[in-house]
Amino acid sequence: MEHAKFDASPLLGGLELLQATYEKQAFSRHTHEGYTVGVIRHGAQRFWRNGSYHVAPTSSIIMVNADQIHDGHSASEGGWAYEAMYPTNAQFQAVTKDLGLASDVPYFPFAVEQDPKLANQLLTLFALLRNNEDTLLTETFTHHLLLTLTCRFNKHPQQPVDIAKIGPQLDVVREYLHQHVTDTVNLDTLSVLSGISPYHLVRQFKARFGLPPHAYQIQQRIRLAQSMLKNGLSLVDCAIASGFHDQSHLHRHFRRAIGVTPKQYQRAISCKLSKPRIDTTAVMSS
């Protein structure tokens, strides 16, 4: 049986959490606004990051940077279970400001870390965040772990020279997609806008941002939908307002990227400032 419990702690403006057991779930390639820091409870997960696949076995730590393309599915018979949090750049910066670090946010160079001490600390933090019974203890532990991650992983990679040369043009395309999230956009428009041929634009855009333009736009629509769901918009209205054809279209893309349905996500988020938590066990149907 597949089970997913999405939650959000009120700390740092809403630190998002996921506790899940999956067997047949296959995440599409997607991004999160925040980082992914998770611990495999049992089984193993295989996922794509940084141009190759990685396997995270039981007790290992999954690490994905903010806005980094990744996917995920089971690497073991019977599926896998894990717990994860999704701290954003702003949440890291709230903890690390005024400390004089080389960078106020981390960069995880490796997709999988084998560190039993850190894994146990993360599991302790996840439990504290879900229960939120001792505010001072939870806040202290949260700050400690986020600062630990930032200090330990504080070196950022350099961009390849060929991508760096046309970086400004690719940034223009990316900004255009941000400004036209819900619009129908064609490749010729993006090509003219950037001065790059359609073929090379798709290749270079994917090399820099991890997804081709059409898939990148879908990810932005999912983020827009998340924002609307947080604000209480109905599922039907949210689907149309975020650029999806209908509710089922939103449901399909949302669950493949986030791991829970839009309805589950909205229920959990709406309770983030209250003590009770919503258990979103559900029939995982597309």
UniProtKB/TrEMBL annotation:
Residue span(s) of domain HTH araC/xylS-type: 171-268
Classification via Pfam families: AraC_binding, HTH_18
Keywords, sorted A to Z: DNA-binding, Transcription, Transcription regulation
GO molecular function: DNA-binding transcription factor activity; sequence-specific DNA binding
InterPro entries, per the entry: AraC-bd, AraC_XylS_family_regulators, Homeodomain-like_sf, HTH-like, HTH_AraC
Superkingdom: Bacteria
Name the UniProt record assigns to this protein: AraC family transcriptional regulator
Species this chain originates from: Enterovibrio norvegicus FF-454
